[in-house]
């Protein structure tokens, strides 16, 4: 009975976890849709074009504050789950909204990978610089950014920090357009954490169910093996009966049979 209760509890837990994961996916999708709508607005306003320079410049030491009236948003197009395959390119769309009174001159976009919780640098990603890209006042624009993590990076959860560097009135500023987690997977093995959790939980339920069935079979076999005991012994003759029968026809007949 106790095993059955445990099995029932784990089954309820599996159902609840699946429901919660679906809710989380829906919330994530809704947030991604909201960001996508904002980026779509910037696309309607017009994609800013500008000559893209080389990526040899190092932006690691740059640390500027954001300018007033400049807002940025980021979306992973066709990739709301933020799954990044090691060694393969991943595309981002960065929307910039200039609500200030002066033009914004976009200088570069760069990003980096960090260990979660510790924020230890793992990899500096490709830096993309612009020679002539600007966003006029009261205008929205989008900038594509493509990066690829090292193919030797171990699969797991990492923090992605993306920044866009720009100038307003010849003063440098920067906005963090994304500061969140991504899931890095090996090439050819696109398995998310939640999928592994469901597989592990399902396997545990299967093992527990097998143990419960085995216990029931053992109890059934023990009941069938209970057989009534039959005692088989030799016949004994009381010595007092022999003395009482001495000299009777019974003893005489026995003696005659022995002589023969």
UniProtKB/TrEMBL annotation:
<comment type="subunit">
    <text>Heterotetramer of TRAP-alpha, TRAP-beta, TRAP-delta and TRAP-gamma.</text>
</comment>
<comment type="function">
    <text>TRAP proteins are part of a complex whose function is to bind calcium to the ER membrane and thereby regulate the retention of ER resident proteins. May be involved in the recycling of the translocation apparatus after completion of the translocation process or may function as a membrane-bound chaperone facilitating folding of translocated proteins.</text>
</comment>
<dbReference type="Pfam" id="PF03896">
    <property type="entry name" value="TRAP_alpha"/>
</dbReference>
<keyword id="KW-0812">Transmembrane</keyword>
<keyword id="KW-0106">Calcium</keyword>
<feature type="signal peptide">
    <location>
        <begin position="1"/>
        <end position="26"/>
    </location>
</feature>
<comment type="similarity">
    <text>Belongs to the TRAP-alpha family.</text>
</comment>
<dbReference type="InterPro" id="IPR005595">
    <property type="entry name" value="TRAP_alpha"/>
</dbReference>
<dbReference type="GO" id="GO:0005789">
    <property type="term" value="C:endoplasmic reticulum membrane"/>
</dbReference>
<keyword id="KW-0472">Membrane</keyword>
<keyword id="KW-1133">Transmembrane helix</keyword>
<keyword id="KW-0256">Endoplasmic reticulum</keyword>
<feature type="transmembrane region" description="Helical">
    <location>
        <begin position="195"/>
        <end position="213"/>
    </location>
</feature>
<protein>
    <recommendedName>
        <fullName>Translocon-associated protein subunit alpha</fullName>
    </recommendedName>
</protein>
<keyword id="KW-0732">Signal</keyword>
């Amino acid at each position: 009975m106790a095993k059955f209760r445990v099995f029932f509890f784990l089954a309820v837990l599996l159902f609840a976890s699946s429901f919660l994961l679906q809710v989380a996916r829906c919330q994530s999708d809704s947030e991604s849709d909201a960001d996508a709508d904002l980026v779509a607005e910037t696309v309607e306003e017009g994609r800013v074009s500008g000559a893209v320079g080389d990526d040899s410049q190092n932006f690691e030491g740059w640390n500027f504050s954001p300018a007033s009236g400049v807002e940025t948003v980021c979306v992973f197009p066709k990739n709301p789950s933020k799954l990044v395959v090691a060694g393969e390119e991943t595309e981002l769309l960065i929307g910039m909204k200039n609500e200030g009174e002066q033009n914004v001159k976009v200088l570069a976009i760069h990003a980096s990978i960090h260990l979660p919780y510790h924020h230890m640098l793992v990899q500096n990603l490709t830096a993309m610089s612009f020679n002539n890209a600007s966003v006029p006042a009261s205008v929205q624009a989008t900038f594509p950014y493509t990066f690829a993590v090292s193919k030797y990076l171990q699969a797991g959860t990492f923090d992605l920090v993306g920044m866009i560097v720009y100038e307003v009135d010849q003063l440098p500023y920067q906005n963090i357009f994304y500061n969140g987690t991504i899931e890095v997977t090996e090439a050819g093995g696109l398995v998310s954490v939640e999928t592994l959790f469901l597989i592990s939980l399902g396997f545990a339920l299967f093992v527990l169910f097998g143990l419960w069935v085995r216990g029931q079979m053992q109890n059934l076999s023990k009941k069938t093996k209970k057989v009534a005991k039959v005692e088989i012994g030799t016949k004994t003759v009381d010595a007092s009966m022999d003395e009482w029968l001495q000299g009777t026809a019974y003893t005489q007949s026995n003696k005659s049979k022995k002589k023969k």
